[in-house]
Amino acid sequence: MKESDLFDPVRNYLSANGYRVRAEVKNCDIVASKDNRIIIIELKLTPNLELIFQATERQRITPSVYTALPRAVIKSTKRWKKFKYILKRLGVGLILIDLDDPNDQIEIILHPIKFQKKKNTRLKSSIIRELDNRSQNLNIGGINRTKIITAYKENAIQIAVYLNKLGASSPKKLRSYQTGKKTLSILSNNYYGWFQRISRGVYDVTSVGKKEIQNFPGLVKKYQNYLEKIGD
Q1: 64, 102, 187, 229: which is deepest, by most CB within 10 A?
Q2: Whole-prediction pTM value?
Q3: What CATH number is given to the structural domain containing 157?
Q4: How many domains, the chain?
């Protein structure tokens, strides 16, 4: 397949809708005009950054800019959804072309309209809570495939350190040492396998927990110092 294979379906669709269509005008793949309105369409075989560059450059000429791609490139993935979201944010239209269906080749997915930003207040609130509940900057930005120390994990480390020092304890006792309202759920859910229930309402740290928290010496020392400061 070549980019030129996409030209005829787009031209035929625009012509059928009353547009005058020309190809390769001032580096634009397709330019169509009707009633003093100009539309520019950039053809590409795959969604990529070059297409984004071209489309936004064409917006200096007209706000009515579309990208056109073969339908075959659609993948049910987050990457495809993100690509459409970027086009929507930029106010760039999107046309899909089905070369295998001569009767219904063109589908307009997005029109180039101004994007109305909506703030995700729930996500913003969760980020603020995560920031507030992390006592130290223990992660390095930009590193992949590395376990992240979240506020939840730090809370679990704190509880494990206290149980290691205090011995088997109830969630109520642990909360008196400022382990927070998630103490019971962290103990009962036991996501990391660090805790075990000794009896009703009483928990202790497992051998796995004692071993794994040593991978976080800074936090272990911090919470040990806290216990020593306030006393048992």
Answers
A1: 187
A2: 0.56
A3: 1.10.10
A4: 2
